[in-house]
Write a structure and sequence with these properties.
By secondary structure, the chain is α/β, with parallel strands linked by helices. It contains 19 helices and ten strands. Helix 9 links the parallel strand 5 and strand 6. Helix 6 packs parallel to helix 7, helix 8 crosses helix 15 and helix 14 crosses helix 18. The longest helix is centred in the middle third of the chain and has 21 residues. The mean pLDDT is about 95.
Length: about 450
């Protein structure tokens, strides 16, 4: 048994088992406190909410609660392993929600929502999630297989009056767009002029591509590959999402697709890109090899083959494309404005917040914190200077305490500008400072 497996299993098995628990936010140590927490006192807020439904946000946890919902059909790079096996990931997501944004998240791994082949039955999953609305302020969909995940999210966004966000689609898209925008600054290229090759035509690959196009990339500049090769107009086995990227091309393999490409986005399988493929790309190539735990190509190999900027999904390499940079701040801003949706404008605002942060000088107090979390990077001067943006730093780090407050602020502003905020924020700059203080206080307890 390898050492990491031993450590990971021990980490999860220590008493109490798992990674999360529920704690009361109010005292219940005396008879009077018991009568307030439960009967007879609890009847008062119940009746108040019945009379004035909007007070549910005042008298319950709903305004700070997110359901992390999965059916276990597309867990990490592990595939369809089922809801029970997916539970450690959903618990981990709940940990990150709390640690980085102070949000109470509950993992809900749902069974009996499958078809006869063991895949997601969209109608069953939709019906189950819709029942959660009275309890939660937002829904984070996670690790749900394509193509059902598209129908599930699109339907729930229409039928529910709280934010619904499929992180595998949009979280990856938001974080990677910010990193790509900065990487292109480093190599002196423009988004709308770049040729993209996307390996992996599942939820993340399709959503990332659509998001980049919304940000200014051109659809005709995309070549997308699935397990059968390049998605082209001659294929008859494509679902509607893939058909939008069917290219009129004679290229059929990933190797052929990569010739002359400016950006490679990997959301497929490990070790699927060779040095020769990288060498065939355009000068100043940007490679985001995000298959986990083994990337499509390792950074040192890609750099040696001529890549200019390389990112992965791993924390032990530079330029980690990690969804934790997105979803905590996105939901923080959505919950605090009591938004009814997380729309495209809010997602683009989150990308803009992250891209800007990587180009801003790092305050001394934040640099000191980053030196603890990333001692080797700090020693190498990664966080120094008036503009620390570089080939190895195109995205802020997860433990940068500026990230969640900034993302929350930009998301909140976009929610107000697009009319989905039910609780507007008067002073966004003050709100950003308040979120930072709130999270810092929580993590010092």
């Amino acid at each position: 048994m390898d050492q990491q497996k031993i450590e990971a299993l021990d980490y999860h098995a220590r008493e109490p088992h798992g990674k999360i628990r529920v704690e009361s936010t109010k005292p219940c140590l005396t008879a009077p406190e018991l009568s307030l927490a439960y009967t007879p006192g609890v009847a008062r807020p119940c009746l108040e909410i019945k009379e004035h439904p909007e007070t549910v946000w005042q008298y319950t946890w709903r305004g700070n609660a997110v359901a992390v919902v999965s059916d276990g059909t597309a867990v990490l790079g592990l595939g369809n392993i089922g809801p029970e096996a997916g539970m450690p990931v959903m618990e981990g997501k709940a940990v990150l929600f709390k640690r980085f944004a102070g949000i109470d998240a509950v993992p809900l791994c749902l069974g009996r929502v499958f078809d006869e082949r063991g895949r997601t039955d969209a109608a069953k999953l939709i019906a189950a999630v819709e029942t959660l609305e009275p309890t939660f302020g937002g829904i984070n969909l996670e690790d749900i297989g394509a193509p059902a995940c598209f129908e599930v999210e699109q339907t729930l966004k229409k039928t529910m009056n709280i934010p619904v966000f499929h992180d595998d689609q949009h979280g990856t898209a938001i974080i990677s767009l910010a990193a790509i925008l900065n990487a292109l600054k480093v190599v002196g290229k423009r988004l709308e002029e770049c040729r993209f090759v996307v390996a992996g035509a599942g939820a993340a690959g399709i959503s990332c591509s659509e998001f980049y196009i919304r940000a200014g990339a051109r659809r005709e500049n995309f070549l997308m590959c699935d397990s059968k090769g390049v998605i082209h107009t001659g294929r008859t086995d494509l679902n509607p999402e893939k058909r939008r990227f069917a290219a009129d091309t004679d290229r059929r393999t990933l190797a052929e697709a990569l010739k002359g490409a400016d950006v490679f986005l990997g959301l497929s399988v490990g070790n699927s890109v060779t040095p020769e493929m990288v060498a065939s790309m355009a000068p100043g190539a940007v490679i985001f090899a995000m298959a986990n735990p083994t990337p499509e190509i390792f950074p040192d190999v890609a750099m040696a083959a001529g890549a200019a900027v390389v990112g992965t999904g791993r924390s032990d390499f530079p330029n980690q494309i990690n969804n934790v940079l997105g979803f905590p701040g996105i939901f923080r801003g959505a919950l605090d404005t009591r938004a009814t949706d997380i729309n495209e404008e809010m997602k683009l605002a989150a990308s803009r917040a992250l891209a800007e942060l990587a180009s801003e000088p790092v305050p001394p107090e934040v640099r000191a914190e980053l030196a603890v979390a990333y001692p080797e990077d700090a020693a190498a001067g990664m966080f120094d200077g008036g503009n620390p943006l570089s080939r190895t730093y195109v995205s802020p780090k997860p433990f940068d305490t500026r990230v969640v407050p900034r993302v929350a602020r930009y998301v909140a502003e976009a929610a107000m500008q697009t009319g989905v905020a039910r609780n507007p924020i008067a002073d966004p700059a003050a709100y950003e400072r308040e979120v930072a203080a709130r999270i810092r206080a929580q993590n010092q307890r």
